[in-house]
Amino acid sequence: MKITDHFTQAEGNTLVSFEVLPPLKGGSMQDIFDTLDPLMEFNPPFIDVTYHREEFVYNKRASGYYEKTAIRKRPGTVGICASIMHHYGVDAIPHLICGGFSKEETENALIDLQFLGIHNVLALRGDARKFEDKFIPETDGHKYAVELVQQIHEMNHGNYLDTSIERGAKTDFCVGVAGYPEKHFESPNFQQDIQYLKDKIDAGASYIVTQMFFDNKKFFNFKKACEDAGINVPIIPGIKPLTKKYQLNSIPRKFFVDFPEELVKQVVNTHEDAIVDLGIEWCISQCKELKESGVPCIHFYTMSDSKIIYKVAEKL
Ligand code: FAD
Asked: What is the Å distance from ligand 1's center to 293 Cα?
């Protein structure tokens, strides 16, 4: 079922959904089930599975030279999605990125998804690789997520890259895209970021999932800016509780989001052992306010740790 249909069917009730990461290489599907099993009592209509492109690592050889090798630490997104759908009977959403894919490889990945009965995707650009200072697309790949959305839109109209295919079967993908309540870090400014987001919607995306945030004011401001720009699709807040003191520094560095002053004060004045509870309490009050504001869904970044997410979701 399309994600947007889940929202329609919910008739204004706020749904709860989860994002999981493929386990590190050598892990198994049981790792995913262990994360998801306790969360299934909240009836998530869909589960997102992230995609992790290959990274370069440098291994020192006996000669003293370094050898550059490409490795993927967390493979398996498509297979995991198929397995989740089969095991739990809920929709699974693979994250599909531009990085590392030519347009043809993207088309083949989408054909595989179609075969597997997976009709929802979150279309993303992906980040620059480690050791690269900017995102570099494949020679015949997409530079921005909007181009990926356009490609999927074309396939939904039966248009494939291979132009010898006439009247190709129309795929039926419902496409989500990423939005940034505190602006994407590469954007020149907030307003331009909203414009690029609108381009993704105009290209055929049907809903937005946001980057995590810890200050609801940022989300409400973003939602208003989207409305002002003529973006009328569902906007799903992405949420993660703070669990460790060091995240006051690591989360802004990694995700380019700010912590509100009040939360910073509380964390600084709390012993490390009590930070998990503080983070859960903060997250619950964030979620309650979001729910009251009528968001269609609250999307939790589980980071493979369901215990903490469970404690938040059970209070909603
Ligand atoms: P885009 O929408 O392409 O935007 C990238 C940058 O380019 C922005 O600064 C934007 O303003 C700018 N831009 C857009 N269009 C244009 C244009 N026409 N001209 C000039 N500039 C433009 N990453 C993964 O690798 N795997 C995942 O599974 C994953 N899941 C994610 C899930 C969510 C909900 C979110 C919010 C992010 C996720 N990411 C994931 C991270 C994401 O790939 C990065 O944030 C990436 O840097 C940007 O992706 P995007 O799709 O927002 O890119």
From this structure: 26
Q: Which domain holds residue 127?
A: 3-239
Whichever domain contains 97, its CATH number is 3.20.20.220
CB 28 within 8 A of CB 255: no
For residue 98 and ligand 1, the question of a CB distance below 6 A is answered with no
According to the model, what pLDDT value does residue 78 have?
Answer: 95
What CA–CA distance (Å, rounded) separates 259 from 264?
Answer: 6
Domain annotation covers residue 208: yes
Cβ 240 under 6 angstroms from ligand 1: no
Instruction: Specify the pLDDT at position 40.
Output: 97
Is residue 179 in a domain?
A: yes
Tokens of 286: 């964030």
Q: Determine the residue of 72, 98, 124, 143 to mutate for testing ligand 1's pocket, defined as the one with the most ligand atoms within 8 A of the Cβ atom.
A: 124
pLDDT 10s digits, 158-207: 999 988 877 789 999 999 999 999 999 999 999 999 999 999 999 999 99
Residues 6+ apart with CB under 8 A from 135: 99, 125, 126, 127, 128, 143
Nearest CA, atom 36, ligand 1:
211
Which atom of ligand 1 is nearest the CA belonging to 193?
11
Each residue's pLDDT tens digit, 228-272 = 999 999 999 999 999 999 999 999 999 999 999 999 999 999 999
Q: What is the model's pTM?
A: 0.96
Ligand 1 centroid from CA 125, angstroms: 5
